[in-house]
Amino acid sequence: MTAEDLARVHELDKICFSLPWPQRSFRYELEENPASSQWVAESKEEANGQGKVVGLIITWLLVDEVHIATLSVDPQYRRKKIASQLICTALRAGVAQSAVSATLEVRASNEAAQRLYYRFGFQLAGRRPGYYLDNGEDALILTLHELDEDHLNIIGCK
């Protein structure tokens, strides 16, 4: 992710989430948060030859844990393995920085996202009641306990 991506990243966040991050939060992650790593996925289908941001992931390295802070893919580009590629990239980067586990929160109603995370080996670790402020929905806490190169190879992260 670069500063030039921020407007599109914020737009994508608004498309994908009922509680989008403020644009200043993305700028903070990019420019000021030393624990943060950010990646975007781009489509090369634009007529002008420029890539269009169609997905993003932001993670935080907290001691030896990768925390997936946000992940989104443009609805028109879903089911093309973009989210999986972003997760693989982020987890590999975490392993390279000595992470041994990963965690995230996901809406209890977001079964599609849960299925994606379970395919990576995440397991249900807990629940945060009323976590989402827009509707009071619970968040499920998912954790991947044994994050290492062997696990990434087994699940097909290239």
Overall radius of gyration? 15 Å
- Tally the helices: what do you get? 5
What is the terminal separation in angstroms?
Answer: 20 Å
Helix content: 25-40%
Number of strands: 6
Arithmetic mean of pLDDT: 92
Order of helix and strand elements from N to C terminus: HHEEEHEHEEH
Silhouette: globular
Tell me the fraction of residues in β-strands, as a range.
25-35%
Topology of helices and strands:
Elements: H1 6-16, H2 23-31, E1 36-43, E2 52-62, E3 65-73, H3 82-96, E4 101-107, H4 111-119, E5 123-128, E6 139-144, H5 149-154
Parallel strand pairs: 3-4
Antiparallel strand pairs: 1-2, 2-3, 4-6, 5-6
What does this structure look like?
This protein is of the alpha+beta class and 158 residues long. Helices cover 32% and strands 30% of the residues. The protein has five helices and six strands. It has a six-stranded mixed sheet with strand order 1-2-3-4-6-5, sandwiched between helices. The relative contact order is 0.14.
List keywords for this structure.
6 strands, alpha+beta, 158 residues, globular, six-stranded mixed sheet
Short description:
With 158 residues, the chain is an alpha+beta fold. The protein is built from five helices and six strands. It has helices spanning 6-16, 23-31, 82-96, 111-119, 149-154, and strands at 36-43, 52-62, 65-73, 101-107, 123-128, 139-144.
